[in-house]
Design brief:
79% helix, 13 helices, MetI-like fold, single chain, mainly alpha
Length: 292
Amino acid sequence: MESSGTREQLLSKKPQATGSVAKKKNKPAGWQVVLVGFFLFYMFVPVISTYAFSIATRWDRTILPEGYTLEFYNTAVHASYFITTLRNSFILSLATVLVSIIIIVPTVYWVHTRLTNAKPLLEVLMILPFGIPTVVLALALVQVYKVPPLARSPFLLIGAVVIYSMPFMFRPVSNALQAIDVHTLTEAGQSLGANIYQVLIKVVIPNILPGILSGSLLVFATVFAEYTLTSLIVGARFKTFPLLLVEFTRINGNVAAAFSVISFTIAWLASILILWVGRRGNSASREAIQAR
């Protein structure tokens, strides 16, 4: 009787011991907390400093600003070409995202399913934009495409920024395709009578939508803040927000900081909007599948 009672007590104590061990394993180590804290400090201090400088009356003699004002934001908003440059930056960023999706998604899907031997070549091609300086790319395109309507036009600029930002769209889409069984999905769709385009649009894209959204966010943020290609290809003909920011950098640093804060905030809000639209699309597709 005593041995059976002792055995029951030991069995009853085992889950508690296991739970305590699990809590100890889940508890982060001290160096991990320090590392994450240092990373957050490194990332957020420049952003917070820019925000503070954009509202500081004077900040050159003390650790903290001597006063605060919103006058620099008022100057930035009422600056000439503010609305025009903001609109042009949105047009350029959204057009680049759309063209990148149209070009890259079908290409990567085709390489993953039909031209698997071309994967190494495609990987190399996607690295080239990182090795080509934007100045060289812009001057080369300007020299080659001299015929209207492409010569120094927004269309040429869109083509240039698509090349420049192509790796940011390629990598998330490629990783998303590798994470799913794209061959089985393609064969299942074709066995049900769908052609290759219907399989891509109705089957594959919904499954890799997180990768497409990630690539869209990276491309949008990169193109919205792009300066060199825009300055060399179109210049003042299609003035974007970074050109206005650099112009005020030479005039007033506080106003330039206000422009930087506005640009960062707009890119952040646009990213949230893209994520929200993607989640709504996923939930709608899931409800449609459940309804069927």
